[in-house]
Design goal:
Layout lengths: L2 E7 L5 H14 L5 E8 L9 H7 L3 E7 L23 H4 L5 E5 L3 E2 L5 H4 L8 E5 L1 H5 L1 H9 L8 E9 H6 L3 H7 L7 H9 L4 E3 L8 H8 L3 H4 L12 H4 L2 E2 L13 H10 L5 H11 L8 H14 L7
Parallel strand pairs: 1-2, 1-4, 2-3, 6-8
Antiparallel strand pairs: 4-7, 5-9, 6-7
Length: 314
């Protein structure tokens, strides 16, 4: 049996998502391994929807809470992303029993076993990460990346990470993380990691954290982008069917979004499934248009007449 250490950070706004994310990790993971979860938090321990049911369903796991204290109190928040985003920066100090861990945002559905990723050699790299498509392909965003002192064309996403805690400790990166957390970076912890870890980031296959744009590229078979360094994979399976899904934009438990069906299917199969909650959500969508304000209805009509009907390929 091998230990698979996984770090999560969230607050009570994401308790449902956390329950589904943890369930997805356990349902996809090797049943012979022990999954060791660490929840980094500030203040009271955040709730996890259906935690008791999860622990009962999966005896090969443990969950511990580790407090970050008030290190990031008053840290810059933007786009509804709270200070909990910064907690991952303290992982090397708060999880001293491991030299390498996996970090995952809880607005993800994990469909890949984490063991092969954890077995990768990292050398002197601090992080293993998926590179951001829009951040690296947009000229405007590359200018932003350069302006903060990160590397244009090599900007990575911080929502899913393989973390070399030993190297982070040895090179004393945490004080630098904390120092920069006092600034107002547009992409918060993600910018900070790209600045501090510059030159020591290992690319991992994009299937470990597929966002909407990546799913669009794969589904449309955009060969130029699929052959780029940003979308390499070592698996011949269809990424649409087996990759990890990161809902880094719209949240499927709140509204319509790509891959909504995958999140709800994971919820339905999880130990925290509540039939009434499931039914009420979809039943409410039957009258969704009736609940819209007049201005939103007009916008829908304008969009229809400007762009026309969606055309499907036969």
């Amino acid at each position: 049996m091998k230990n698979i250490p996984i770090v999560l950070t969230f607050d009570n706004n994401m308790s449902l998502a956390a329950g589904v994310c943890i369930s997805s990790i356990m349902m996809s993971g090797n049943k012979d391994n022990f999954h060791d979860f660490f929840v980094l938090h500030s203040g009271p321990e955040p709730e996890i929807c259906g935690l008791e049911s999860i622990l009962k369903a999966f005896p090969n796991m443990r969950l511990q809470y580790r407090s970050v204290g008030d290190v990031f109190k008053g840290a810059f928040e933007i786009r509804g992303i709270t200070s909990a985003a910064y907690y991952r920066l303290l992982t090397s100090e708060l999880v001293p029993e491991y030299d390498k861990v996996i970090y995952a945002d809880v607005d993800m559905v994990i469909r890949l076993d984490m063991e092969p990723l954890l077995d990768r050699e990292m050398g002197s790299n601090y992080l293993g990460a998926v590179y951001g498509l829009s951040m690296n392909l947009s000229e405007e965003r590359q200018k932003y990346v350069e302006s903060i002192g990160a590397t244009p064309g090599k900007y990575f996403l911080s929502g899913f990470l393989l973390m070399n805690l030993k190297a982070i400790r040895e090179n004393r990166l945490v004080p630098r993380f904390i120092e920069l957390s006092k600034g107002k970076y547009k992409y918060q912890d993600q910018d900070i990691m790209n600045i501090v870890c510059k030159g020591h980031i290992m690319s991992i296959p994009y299937v470990y954290s597929m966002v909407d744009s990546a799913f669009g590229i794969v589904s449309r078979n955009e060969t130029v982008l699929l052959s780029s360094e940003y979308m390499q994979t070592e698996d011949n399976r269809d990424p649409l069917l087996y990759s990890n899904i990161h809902f880094n934009g719209a949240k499927p438990w709140k509204t319509w979004c790509p891959n909504l069906d995958q999140w709800w299917e994971c919820y339905r199969k999880s130990p925290i499934y509540d039939p009434s909650f499931y039914f009420n959500y979809f039943n409410s969508k039957l009258t969704y248009l009736d609940q819209l304000s007049l201005s939103k209805r007009i916008k829908i009509l304008l969009r229809y007449f400007i762009y026309g009907r969606v055309k499907y390929n036969n």
